[in-house]
Write a structure and sequence with these properties.
Layout: H1 2-5, E1 17-27, E2 33-43, E3 47-51, H2 58-66, E4 73-78, E5 91-94, H3 106-116, H4 121-134, H5 150-162, E6 168-172, H6 180-197, E7 200-205, H7 208-214, E8 217-221, E9 228-233, H8 242-245, H9 248-261
Parallel strand pairs: 3-7, 3-8, 5-6, 6-7
Antiparallel strand pairs: 1-2, 1-4, 8-9
Helix pairs in contact: 3-4, 3-5, 4-5, 7-9
Length: 270
């Protein structure tokens, strides 16, 4: 298979970059060209959203960055750093579904990555507690997934991604299934976390409004095979809050991004 011969470039991207994709393509075994060629640089500490129609390769790009899949051609460079324990803490992944273990408490769900990496129990307990505090679930450590709302389950998933202290946080439509009020609140909380932790965030979404509100840069992707169709730098004052969401500037950015996105849907059935 072509995929097995085209592994991600293990070299780090140039200084200042967290992720660098060069000439990346992805063709599946059935012949479907899902992505590329794609060139994308993401700076350390940057919040970038990938926006585009279903099937344009947004999630595929995240999987390639995470090392969960290999590109058919091109290179994927990811900056990596070592923690105090010598382990490499590079990437945390938040999927669209929380994928929690129903038989385990919130605490044990968040502890899972540390258990798999054989972190000392005392250290793991401290890190789990810190991660739950960061996402506002310190009082629910002993609860089980069936006792949580959809938004709370997603917070658990976010805490599980943060517990290893990754440099890069990949988020694949994490709030898509939530009601609008919960989604707005989680957007605000995610921005607050990003400001305090200064992680690099690459966020996949179908929502123009969400992408503009959250991001420093919005990448609009074309229909399959996904390429960069346009990009927008969202120059809004920090910290962003409801004042930005209801401002003329916000509405203007949304119009521009929507206009760039429209050609991606031409000829697509919905």
């Amino acid at each position: 298979m072509a995929e097995s011969a085209a592994l991600s470039d293990p070299g780090a991207p140039r200084a200042g970059l967290a992720v660098s994709l060069r000439g990346v393509t992805k063709i599946y075994d059935n012949g479907v060209a899902a992505l590329g060629p794609l060139d994308l640089d993401v700076a350390k500490g940057e919040f970038v959203s990938l926006l585009g129609p279903s099937g344009c390769g947004k999630s595929t790009a995240l999987r390639l960055i995470a090392g969960l899949s290999a590109p058919t051609s091109g290179s994927v460079g990811v900056a990596r750093s070592a923690g105090a324990d010598g382990a490499r803490h590079s990437i945390g992944f938040v999927f669209q579904e929380p994928t929690l273990m129903p038989w385990a408490s919130v605490r044990e769900n968040v502890r899972l990555p540390l258990k798999l990496s054989h972190a000392p129990p005392e250290e793991a307990a401290v890190r789990v507690s810190a991660a739950l505090t960061q996402v506002g679930l310190a009082d629910f450590a002993g609860a089980f997934p069936r006792e949580l709302s959809g938004g709370m389950k997603m917070r658990v998933s976010l805490a599980r991604a943060l517990v290893t202290d990754p440099d890069i946080l990949l988020m694949d439509e994490p709030f898509a299934a939530l009601d609008e009020i919960t989604r707005f609140r989680l957007n605000n909380d995610l921005l607050a976390l990003w400001r305090s932790l200064r992680k690099t965030v690459i966020f996949v979404t179908h929502s123009v409004f969400e992408s503009v509100y959250l991001s420093q840069r919005v990448i609009v992707m074309s229909a399959r095979p996904g390429r960069i169709g346009a990009e927008f730098h969202i120059d809004a004052p920090e910290p962003r809050a409801e004042e930005f969401r209801t401002s003329a500037d916000y509405a203007g950015y949304c119009r521009k991004v929507s206009s760039a996105l429209a050609p991606s849907y031409q000829g697509q059935s919905v």
